[in-house]
Design goal:
By secondary structure, this protein is an alpha/beta fold. The chain has twelve helices and seven strands. Helix 5 links the parallel strand 3 and strand 4.
């Protein structure tokens, strides 16, 4: 993905084999940088495969320590980022609650330190943060959801693709197909507030129109149209657009469900609000 779009990316292991607590990271063992400008793309990917292949999920979860390392590195280059008008999008992929490097038990102190590390990073204007959960453990999911709900931090916490599709549908945002591309964009981090809000609340009509415009390429501007006219034009475009994979239904479908869009925007065929379509 990053090679295709040309955005440099680093993969940093949480607790790699061979790294002792407090020691510096070693390229190829503890982290791998993917950068299209360096060329030799297949070699870069192979280094990443080798590192991931020799380090499966295991042991402790010292997230705060890794975040401290990353924060120091970002802080050292913050002036360069500002000059180039660049940002760092940090995605934490984890299946467990935070611990120290020496114990697999997550204590109150471990969790408090983790939240403080999150606060430090989130208060840096050059950083956007995503937590991608890879677990079905109810206690772990509950813990991270509480962070999302109770701690006022600008971060997004994501489940797997099917889980996210079901969650945003429960918020009334099921009028479009939740595709792998949308999920990958949210996992990687985005400045789009609409994509951040999908699993938080039902979108307003203006937001629905904007998202639909991002999902579908219109040959002409649609901003001047009324909501009813807008839906009519979107229906025409969708009729000639290839179907896409929808994670919630796990099947191919049109990128926009016109009937559900009418319900979401409260626009009936004759001005009446349509009933909810399951």
């Amino acid at each position: 993905w990053n090679l295709r779009v040309g955005t440099p990316c680093e993969f940093v292991l949480l607790n790699s084999i061979g790294r002792t607590p407090g020691s510096p990271m070693v390229e190829g063992r503890d982290c791998v940088r993917i950068d299209r400008s360096n060329g030799l793309e297949e070699e870069q990917l192979q280094r990443l495969r080798n590192m991931l292949g020799s380090n499966g999920p295991r042991g402790v979860t010292p997230i705060a320590e890794r975040l401290d390392d990353i924060q120091i590195r970002i802080q050292a280059g913050v002036s360069d980022l500002a000059q180039r008008a660049q940002m760092v999008f940090l995605t934490i992929v984890t299946d467990g609650m935070p611990t120290t490097p020496f114990s697999g038990e997550s204590t109150d102190a471990d969790r408090a330190r983790f939240v403080q590390a999150l606060r430090t990073l989130c208060h840096m204007p050059q950083v956007q943060l995503v937590i991608r959960l890879c677990t079905d453990d109810a206690d772990t999911i509950s813990y991270y959801n509480r962070i999302d709900q109770e701690v006022e931090l600008p971060l997004d916490i994501l489940d797997d693709m099917v889980g996210e599709a079901q969650e945003l549908a429960g918020k009334g945002n099921d009028w479009f197909a939740y595709t792998p591309v949308i999920h990958r964009m949210r996992e990687a981090g985005t400045l789009s507030k609409i994509l951040d809000e999908l699993d938080e609340r039902s979108l307003e009509n203006s937001e629905i129109r904007k998202l639909a415009g991002l999902l579908i390429s219109s040959p002409q501007p649609l901003d001047h149209l009324s909501d009813r006219q807008f839906i009519k034009e979107i229906a025409k475009i969708v009729s000639g657009t290839p179907w896409v994979y929808d994670a919630r239904r796990q099947e191919m479908r049109p990128v926009v469900h016109i009937g559900k869009m009418r319900v979401a925007m409260k626009v009936g065929f004759r001005g009446k609000v349509l009933p909810v379509i399951c």
